[in-house]
Amino acid sequence: MGLIVQKFGGTSVATTERIRNVGHRVLEEVNKGHQAVVVVSAMGKTTDQLVSLANDLSAYPSKREMDMLLATGEQVTISLLSIALQEMGHQAVSLTGWQAGIQTEKVFSNARITDIDASKIQSLLNENQIVIVAGFQGVSSDGEITTLGRGGSDTTAVALAAALGADRCDIYTDVTGVYTSDPRYVKDARKLDRISYEEMLELAHLGAGVLHPRAVEFAKNYQIPLEVRSSMERERGTIIEEEAQMENGLVVRGVAFEKNVTRMTLFGLDNSHATLSKVFRSLAENHINVDIIIQANTGEKKSSLSFTIHDEDVQNTLSVLEKYSNEIGFDKVESETGLAKVSIVGAGMISNPGVAARMFEVIEGIDAAIKMVSTSEIKVSAVIEQEKMLDAANALHAAFKLGEVAATSVN
Ligand code: ADP
Ligand code: ASP
Ligand code: MG
């Protein structure tokens, strides 16, 4: 007998019939003698619908009220699942994030979990209850309702698995596992049996929406094996673990992509030694996430600096830069929206110097201009125009032969 955390995403709970189906998947584990903690998302597209309701009223609704609003979505699902399980003759109880003891920092719309007091869940489990917890939400130390960022229910599940010392954490979704690329847009994408935490973390950060990046971070830090699998089909999913065995000769494991990227460029930047720290300190203090940064100081008095942000942060970034313009010292700022980032990921890249060159050849081969590049030991990313994003992803997937089981060499 063990303790299992199961998480079901929005599509898996989109209707009452699917909620009943989820109930059956939960009971499969319970009937084996396991204790079950179940984390659910809001039904179907509820979160998007709530966002658009708010946008009907305001272009910039306050983040506090948005969290208050969005947290209601998951609350609907927990109670419905609990009702379904009770109807099937089982003891079940639903808990909001705050009732479940999920503490977060006070950052609306993208809060990090700081602590979990799992005592209430534990005592309900001891009473043989199936415990159902609302994903994506928590409470700050001063009692404010917070949310964990879009897709954050995964993180609730893995964090609870860590706090409870669960034996397993299963993420049920609308695909049968983690694929070499998003199967919705890359036609030859292939399901992986296994992938390492490190590669999954990189893919998730680079836009593979199948898992919330912080969920993978928790899983890696607490060594919790994850399985991503389908809530509708029976086949085994993808295991995410410390050292996934490399498939033969595999250099690139997956292709990820992300749109809504903006490039900001500051021209005529003073080359005094503290300039960069001032720019990025002021952005960080305003919770603006910066991704790729490019600056070449060639020893002249002035230089330019480019960095990427998410489209939705453009206004905020411009006003922060304006506010600090005298302190930072630059001539003008330009932004280019409508860009996308396409990335290849694989632990095998470290020892294969030709991978980046091959990637650039493929992107140039579809006539896309590469605007920025960023590399690490296990990934290469290129910023290109958004219209070329899916062509680039499909071309890279084919060039690195990711659709084939025994994968590729570099040339
Ligand atoms: P859930 O609501 O269950 O959390 P999500 O929509 O957040 O589901 O995540 C599942 C989706 O992730 C899939 O439908 C798929 O389109 C997308 N996705 C993106 N990249 C990948 C990938 N590499 N492997 C599998 N799915 C991916
Ligand atoms: N309901 C939230 C969202 O749509 C959280 C989640 O599904 O993980 O982003
Ligand atoms: Mg998700």
UniProtKB/TrEMBL annotation:
Residues annotated as binding ATP: 7-10, 173-174, 179, 184
The entry's keywords: Amino-acid biosynthesis, ATP-binding, Diaminopimelate biosynthesis, Kinase, Lysine biosynthesis, Nucleotide-binding, Repeat, Transferase
Function, in words: Catalyzes the phosphorylation of the beta-carboxyl group of aspartic acid with ATP to yield 4-phospho-L-aspartate, which is involved in the branched biosynthetic pathway leading to the biosynthesis of amino acids threonine, isoleucine and methionine.
Subunit-structure text: Tetramer consisting of 2 isoforms Alpha (catalytic and regulation) and of a homodimer of 2 isoforms Beta (regulation).
Domain ACT residue range list: 264-338
Catalytic activity: L-aspartate + ATP = 4-phospho-L-aspartate + ADP
Top-level EC class as recorded in UniProt: transferase
UniProt key word Glycosyltransferase: no
Keyword Repeat assigned: yes
GO molecular function terms noted in the UniProt entry: aspartate kinase activity; ATP binding
Organism listed in the record: Bacillus oleivorans
Binding, substrate: 47, 74
GO CC annotation terms, alphabetical: cytosol
Pathway: Amino-acid biosynthesis; L-threonine biosynthesis; L-threonine from L-aspartate: step 1/5; Amino-acid biosynthesis; L-methionine biosynthesis via de novo pathway; L-homoserine from L-aspartate: step 1/3; Amino-acid biosynthesis; L-lysine biosynthesis via DAP pathway; (S)-tetrahydrodipicolinate from L-aspartate: step 1/4
NCBIfam families: asp_kin_monofn, asp_kinases, PRK06635.1-2, PRK06635.1-4, PRK06635.1-5
Family: Belongs to the aspartokinase family.
SUPFAM superfamilies according to UniProt: ACT-like, Carbamate kinase-like
PANTHER family membership: ASPARTATE KINASE, ASPARTOKINASE 2
EC number: 2.7.2.4
Protein name, UniProt field: Aspartokinase
Gene Ontology BP terms: diaminopimelate biosynthetic process; homoserine biosynthetic process; lysine biosynthetic process via diaminopimelate; threonine biosynthetic process
